[in-house]
C-alpha cells in the first residue's frame, strides 16, 4: 500500500517509516527538515522515500499539494509540536501547528479520493486529568491544562467533528502516552537527557524525579497505530473503526522518573547518580494512564515489551550507537527482533 506519513522526519515518524518499508509498503512523508543529529538525519533516510516532501502543515496549499502528489491509500498524521515545555514558550505556534495543521490535513484528505484510511495521532494528554490512577477510557471527557494538551484535545475534537459531519474517508484517532526508544534526541525528554549526561560522564538532572508516568517502547505504540490502520483498511463496512483508540501499557509500566533513570544507569553500567533539578520549572500533569482494553479486545493489540525490556532495548540502542554501531542497522535490527517477538506471542503484525 501507499502511505503518507506527516512528521516522518521526527522520532516516531522515522521508526514508523522504517517499519512500513520493512513490511513492503511504499512510504512518502511530509514534514519540516529533520533536526540536525536526529535519527532521520543520522540514517540519511531521505533516499528510502517515494516522496520526501518538506513543507509546513500550517499552510493548506502545502498539505493539499502533498496529498495530490502522493495520492496515498493511507495517511498517518503525526506532525506536531509535541513538547509541553515548548508549548509554554510558544503557545501560538503550538496551536497553529497542532490545530490548524490538523484542520489542513483533514481538508486535504477529504479532497483526495485515493485515501482508504486516515489516522490522526493525538496523545494521552487529551484527557481531562482528574488525578485518577485507573486508566482513562476513550469515551471520557477531554481537557487540557497546558497549551500542548489543549492543542491536542482541540485536534482530537476537530477530528471527531470531521468524522461525524463529513463523508470523507474512514478516520480514526490514536491516543498514546510517553514513548521511549533509541534514537530520540529531542530536548526536554528523559531518556535523551540521561544519555547525554552519561555520555559526558555527568550526573543526569531530573526535573520531576517522583512523578509516575506510563512508559512504553515506541515500537509497541507504533504497532498499535498499524493494527488500527490494518483494521480500517480491511474493514468491509469501512467506518466501524472510526473514532478514538487508546494504546497504553498496563499498570506494571507506571513507574517513577527516578526508577526509570536508575534502571537506565544500571543497563548502561554507568558510574553516576542522578540529581534533582532545583531550578523553578513549569507545571506538568501528574500520572495520566490509558485504559487500552478496547484496542486489546477489538484489534487484538497489546504491549509486547514489558517495562524493563522497554528501558533495556532503549539503552541497548544508545549504547550500541555510542560505541560506533550503524544507527540504521541498529534500528532495523530492533524492528526485526520486535516483529519476531510479536510472532512468537502469536499476535498479528
Ligand atoms: N514522543 C512521545 O512520547 C509522544 C507521546 C504522545 C504523543 N506523541 C505524538 O506523536 C507525534 C510524533 O511525535 P514525535 O515524538 O515523533 O515528535 P518529533 O518532535 O520527534 O517529530 C515531530 C515531527 O513533526 C514535524 N513538524 C513539526 N511542526 C511541523 C509543521 N509546522 N509542519 C510540518 N511538519 C511539522 C517535524 O518536522 C517532525 O517530523 C506527535 O503528534 C506527538 O504529539 C508523542
Name its key features:
about 350 residues, alpha/beta, Rossmann fold, seven-stranded parallel sheet, two-stranded parallel sheet, 12 helices, about 45% helix, globular, binds nicotinamide-adenine-dinucleotide
Walk me through the structure.
- The chain is an alpha/beta fold and 349 residues long.
- It has one domain (2-278, 287-344): Rossmann fold.
- Helix content is 44%, strand content 14%.
- The chain is built from 12 helices and 13 strands.
- It has helices at 11-22, 39-43, 60-70, 84-89, 91-110, 147-165, 190-199, 218-234, 257-268, 293-299, 307-322, 327-344, and strands at 2-6, 26-31, 52-54, 74-77, 117-121, 171-176, 179-180, 205-206, 212-214, 216-217, 243-247, 254-256, 275-276.
- Strands 3-2-1-4-5-6-11 form a 7-stranded parallel sheet, sandwiched between helices.
- Helix 1 links the parallel strand 1 and strand 2 (26-31).
- Helix 5 runs parallel beside helix 6 (147-165) and helix 7 packs parallel to helix 9 (257-268).
- It starts with a strand and ends in a 5-residue tail after the last helix.
- Residues 7, 9-13, 31-32, 56-58, 78-82, 97, 101, 121, 123, 176-179, 186 line the site of nicotinamide-adenine-dinucleotide (NAD).
Amino acid at each position: 500500500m501507499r502511505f503518507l506519513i506527516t512528521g516522518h522526519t521526527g522520532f516516531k515518524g522515522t521508526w514508523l517509516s522504517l517499519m512500513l518499508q520493512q513490511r513492503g509498503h511504499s512510504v512518502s512523508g511530509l514534514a519540516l527538515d529533520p533536526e540536525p543529529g536526529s535519527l532521520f538525519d543520522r540514517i540519511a533516510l531521505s533516499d528510502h522515500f517515494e516522496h520526501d516532501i518538506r513543507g509546513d502543515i500550517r499552510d493548506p496549499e502545502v498539505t493539499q499539494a502533498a496529498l495530490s502528489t502522493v495520492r496515498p491509500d493511507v495517511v498517518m498524521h503525526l506532525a506536531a509540536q509535541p513538547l509541553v515545555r515548548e508549548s509554554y514558550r510558544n503557545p501560538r505556534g503550538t496551536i497553529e501547528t497542532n490545530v490548524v495543521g490538523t484542520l489542513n490535513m483533514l481538508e486535504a484528505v477529504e479532497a483526495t479520493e485515493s485515501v482508504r484510511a486516515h489516522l490522526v495521532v493525538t496523545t494521552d494528554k487529551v484527557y481531562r486529568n482528574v488525578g485518577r490512577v485507573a486508566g482513562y477510557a476513550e469515551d471520557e471527557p477531554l481537557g487540557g491544562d497546558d497549551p500542548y494538551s489543549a492543542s491536542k484535545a482541540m485536534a482530537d475534537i476537530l477530528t471527531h467533528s470531521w468524522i461525524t459531519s463529513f463523508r470523507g474517508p474512514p478516520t480514526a484517532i490514536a491516543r498514546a502516552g510517553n514513548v521511549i526508544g533509541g534514537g530520540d534526541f529531542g530536548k526536554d525528554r528523559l531518556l535523551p537527557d540521561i544519555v547525554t549526561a552519561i555520555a559526558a560522564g555527568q550526573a543526569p538532572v531530573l526535573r520531576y524525579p517522583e512523578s509516575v508516568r506510563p512508559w512504553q517502547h515506541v515500537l509497541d505504540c507504533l504497532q498499535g497505530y498499524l493494527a488500527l490502520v490494518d483494521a480500517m483498511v480491511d474493514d468491509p463496512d469501512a467506518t466501524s473503526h472510526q473514532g478514538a483508540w487508546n494504546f497504553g501499557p498496563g499498570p506494571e509500566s507506571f513507574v517513577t522518573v527516578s526508577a526509570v533513570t536508575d534502571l537506565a544507569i544500571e543497563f548502561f553500567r554507568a558510574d553516576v547518580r542522578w540529581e534533582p533539578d532545583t531550578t523553578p520549572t513549569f507545571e506538568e500533569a501528574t500520572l495520566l494512564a490509558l485504559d487500552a482494553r478496547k484496542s486489546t479486545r477489538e484489534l487484538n493489540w497489546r504491549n509486547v515489551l514489558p517495562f524493563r525490556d522497554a528501558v533495556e532495548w532503549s539503552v541497548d540502542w544508545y549504547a550500541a550507537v555510542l560505541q560506533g554501531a550503524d544507527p540504521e542497522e541498529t534500528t532495523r535490527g530492533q524492528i526485526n527482533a520486535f516483529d519476531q517477538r510479536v510472532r512468537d506471542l502469536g499476535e498479528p503484525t
